[in-house]
Known about the structure:
Layout: H1 16-40, H2 43-50, H3 64-87, H4 93-108, H5 115-120, H6 127-150, H7 159-171, H8 173-176, H9 184-195
Amino acid sequence: xxxxxxxxRARRQPTEQGSNRRAQILEIAAHLFAAKGYAGTSMRDIxxxxxxxxxxxxxxxxxxxxxxxxxxxxxxDQAGTRIEEAVATLDDPWEKLETACITxxxxxxxxxxxxxxxxxxxxxxxxxxxxxxxxxxxxxxxIFARIIAELDLPPHIxxxxxxxxxxxxxxxxxxxxxxxxxxxxxxxxxxxxxMRGGKV
Length: 200
């Protein structure tokens, strides 16, 4: 008599409590990465802040690199969704560009936002991780590439140089911006006007 074959074991589904715990760890890690950078944040720091001891942290996250990549990609996804929603109902390409610039800077210059440090702080990451992050960032930047492709620019303008110039201006506002005379929206309009050759 042959022995009945055992049914395959069902994969354990994460409990609601486990999912909530992981969400808490992600939030804590995001704040630590934003405050201390990739290089300055260790898994021990995250575990201590989250109250998770020893190897228990690895039950929730695979590694520091995987954790940072997930947070980085989530930040880009949220920023991308917000920009695309802002321009979705617009027809004029220059209005789209201005709105995208304003939305990007409202994200970048929000003092409570974790998006900027997570999007920009990966220079100290290991090379394999850095390649993945750059690839994901390039995918995010196609939002601007599509808008720029619609602009009525002179034929001698290289669209890649134009896009990189625009994104450099937007990304580096965090280096010099101080709240006061101009709001993020004001600066976004100025950047768009500059990219249009001074026309408003």
